[in-house]
Amino acid sequence: MDAYGSPSGHLDLRGLTKNSFEESTKKSSSFGFTSPPLIPGLLRCLRDVVGPNAKPTAIQSLSIQHILSPDSTTDSQPRWKQFLLAAETGSGKSIAYLLPVLQSLKQTEKSSSVSSPQSTRKENPRALILAPTHELSRQLSGFAKDLLHEAKLKVVCASRANLPTRSTEASKRGTSREMKMAFDDESGATEMDVKPAAPTTRQADIFVGTPTKILEMVKGRGWDRTEDDIEDQDLSLEEKERRRWKLGLGRWKAEPEMGLANVEWVVVDEADVLFDPDFQETTRLLLSEISAARGQTIALTPEPSLWSFDSSETEPSDKTVEVINYPFNFILTSATIPNSLSNYLERHHPSMQRLVSPKIHRLPTTLQTEYVDWSGGNKLADIEKRIRQVWAEDSVSPGAAGGVPKLSKVLIFCNKGKKVEALSEYLEEKGIKTVWLTGSGSNRLKGSNRHLEGFLKERPGRSDVEEDEDENVEAESDGAPTDPNDPKTTPHVMITTSLLSRGLDFSPDLKNVFIVDEPRNLIDFLHRAGRSARAGQRGRVVVFGKYEGRGSERARTIRRRVAELGK
Ligand SMILES: Nc1ncnc2c1ncn2[C@@H]1O[C@H](COP(=O)(O)OP(=O)(O)OP(=O)(O)O)[C@@H](O)[C@H]1O
């Protein structure tokens, strides 16, 4: 069966029953964000972030009700909680896990082992939030900071940017490895180094980062590299030394910076990616390192071939349950639960509580889907034509409050980096300024989200640009004056691969997502389309394909499957 054969072949709903959702929504009119009560500082910041009239979304109601509630354990040993938060894109899952984690950290601040007198490491966080990309880590740490202005917990983003060499290698593997290519650059060397804390600087309570970067802080930069990584290559001595420096080898090897003994909470955001075949080894290694640091050994057994998106391989031959009980609170979250992840959880975390929105694996109801038939001529010209139609619609749409109508932003997903670059070049020639980003491109900025400026949702009272200044990240600027509403001078079009399809919260100005290549499967489609129509905003996904005449069967099958996601 192919990737579009059946949504349920790839999106696993086992155990994702309505659970306590109906119960929680019945209560939600009086429940709000107030019961169980949030600490006042957190509540005030939350109001600033989501607005004074906001109600919790379904997944937030569930998380507040179940994760925040006091533990009923009576014995002296803490009972560590395990939760899966599963809800559609743009439904507020970040806040759903941040609220209970931040509140718990604040409430146990004094009583916890945070001082860790035995640790000699510079950082000894109490919570880790893991994400697959530097960009998402950066945005999530920003969300957490927004909620913590008053609660005074310290959050640090520990991600890294691009590694051209690995990404280039990965790109050769082609479309089926697109996700791997997109995320592979997290293991690169052109990293943002976390500035070591000065002796008087307060240690961070929470680190947000990719598993690779966190592991590097725990084990020391270069821990997973050997001279073999450069020895085989025909390089000059100077180039070899440069590679050593990039990889953290030899005299460039760094001391471990982070201790894990204090970690009480671990959140795995985009869990289906971080437990997929390409990431799971690193993710599970980090989880077992945390356990070991907290005095409990967890064996790292290899997984059977659970990890394929191919539905024929999703049933494990050996269904033996090997329960893992990590000695910390463990939250996984995702908008899509493939069979592989569901099987993994059944096998290793059978008592994990699954909190699920009833709209999981559905497109947002505020998202309109449109299908555009290729003209049979130049496909790049077809895309340009549809972009200009979007702006023509904007220019006559009401709601511009008497001023110049604001043109909306367009996010375009291609499958391959080369196509991304070709489309960008074409549109630029036609006078449309673009931002293009691929896993192997050098235009992702180290430790910053400036390359996404104007496209990500702005944070109240604080922009990512200001945030970048904290990190001393230089942004490129040609100094030319730009009109923020002119698509010739200010980018209104971003072109990328699946790299940016995961988790990022784009601006409500981004109303249109164009999918110009066939997504690998429905999971990929849901995440790409879900960059628009977030938090109840209206949006549109435009799916290009050959829907008429000979050779149109595949596109029409996709169209039928996508229509089922919208029901
Ligand atoms: N209760 C709420 N009311 C209004 N807006 C909210 C609420 N909760 C969250 N939001 C806003 O919704 C947007 C989407 O939130 P978030 O990025 O956490 O979604 P998500 O479920 O993680 O999506 P994805 O699956 O794509 O990662 C954010 O801009 C957030 O500020």
UniProtKB/TrEMBL annotation:
Alphabetically ordered keywords of this record: ATP-binding, Helicase, Hydrolase, Nucleotide-binding
EC class: hydrolase
E.C. number(s) listed in UniProt: 3.6.4.13
Residue intervals of the Helicase ATP-binding domain: 74-355
Catalytic activity: ATP + H2O = ADP + phosphate + H(+)
Basic and acidic residues biased stretches: 450-464
Superkingdom of the organism of origin: Eukaryota
Stored InterPro entries: DEAD/DEAH_box_helicase_dom, Helicase_ATP-bd, Helicase_C-like, P-loop_NTPase
Region of interest (Disordered), residue spans: 447-491
Bias type Acidic residues, positions: 465-477
UniProt name for this protein: RNA helicase
Organismal lineage: Eukaryota, Fungi, Dikarya, Basidiomycota, Agaricomycotina
